[in-house]
TrEMBL record:
<protein>
    <recommendedName>
        <fullName>Protein kinase domain-containing protein</fullName>
    </recommendedName>
</protein>
<dbReference type="InterPro" id="IPR000719">
    <property type="entry name" value="Prot_kinase_dom"/>
</dbReference>
<dbReference type="GO" id="GO:0004674">
    <property type="term" value="F:protein serine/threonine kinase activity"/>
</dbReference>
<feature type="domain" description="Protein kinase">
    <location>
        <begin position="1"/>
        <end position="229"/>
    </location>
</feature>
<dbReference type="GO" id="GO:0005737">
    <property type="term" value="C:cytoplasm"/>
</dbReference>
<dbReference type="Pfam" id="PF00069">
    <property type="entry name" value="Pkinase"/>
</dbReference>
<dbReference type="GO" id="GO:0005524">
    <property type="term" value="F:ATP binding"/>
</dbReference>
<dbReference type="InterPro" id="IPR011009">
    <property type="entry name" value="Kinase-like_dom_sf"/>
</dbReference>
Length: 233
């Protein structure tokens, strides 16, 4: 947008660069939405009435997609919930195996498009090999405890965020905190996993996804999938 905050402009440029790179990656094509990257002049040619930031030379066009976590978990049988979670895990595993972490996962970043689960919103995406500490730009609701201590984002911080997504979906309740300090206290000390009796078979899985210490947390998506299949048999 014209006169938009520079942080959002930087985020868009970062996401645009990721999509540009994805055009040459077969491994990413199965987990991201198909995109069109067009010159800004294209909008004027098509008589699209939208105000854009003057410094942007290109625009990113994505198709509409349906939010994934819309069906209430407690209305589904256990086998369907297991399948639902595995499909989300497949998408994130694809991103990690392609060499990227999402770095700002939220429930709304999982969508369904043409029968496939896709990921969206890559403003903070970074290479799994990146070791430099970046500006803290994750969402406190989904932040792993180590991020509150200024540590780098990793596959395990993605796994923690996904654990929060799964926990809120399975429990049917949203975590709540009034400010950043309270979120830090919640994630670093106070978080307790409590699921409805029907869904207690998922509690062990969530506990290991949401372990406060990285050494006790799953360190890859494949291990989560193996646990999900073996524990929910």
């Amino acid at each position: 947008m014209k006169q938009g905050h520079h942080i959002y402009q930087q985020g868009f440029q970062h996401e645009l660069a990721f999509y540009q790179e994805s055009l040459n990656s077969t491994s990413l094509s199965s987990i991201i939405l198909p995109c069109d990257i067009v010159p800004k002049a294209f909008l004027a040619f098509k008589a699209v009435d939208i105000e854009v930031e003057q410094s942007l030379a290109q625009m990113l066009i994505l198709p509409d997609a349906v939010p994934y976590f819309t069906v209430g978990a407690q209305t589904l049988p256990i086998a369907s919930i297991q399948h639902y979670l595995l499909r989300a895990l497949d998408a994130l595993q694809g991103l990690h195996e392609a060499g990227w972490i999402h770095a700002d996962l939220k429930q709304e970043h999982f969508v369904e498009y043409q029968g496939q689960v896709k990921l969206i919103d890559f403003e903070q995406v970074q290479s799994v090999r990146q070791q430099a500490i970046t500006e803290m730009n994750a969402t406190p609701r989904y932040m792993a405890p180590e991020l509150f201590h200024g540590e780098v984002k990793t596959i395990q911080s993605d796994i923690y965020a996904l654990g929060i997504i799964f926990y809120e979906w399975l429990s049917g309740q949203k975590l709540y905190a009034e400010n950043y300090t309270e979120w830090a206290y919640l994630h670093c000390q106070r978080l307790q996993i409590e699921l409805p009796e029907k869904l207690l078979s998922f509690q062990s899985l969530l506990s290991k996804m949401l372990a406060k210490h990285q050494a006790a947390r799953f360190d890859n998506i494949y291990a989560i999938k193996q646990a999900l299949v073996s524990e929910i048999a």
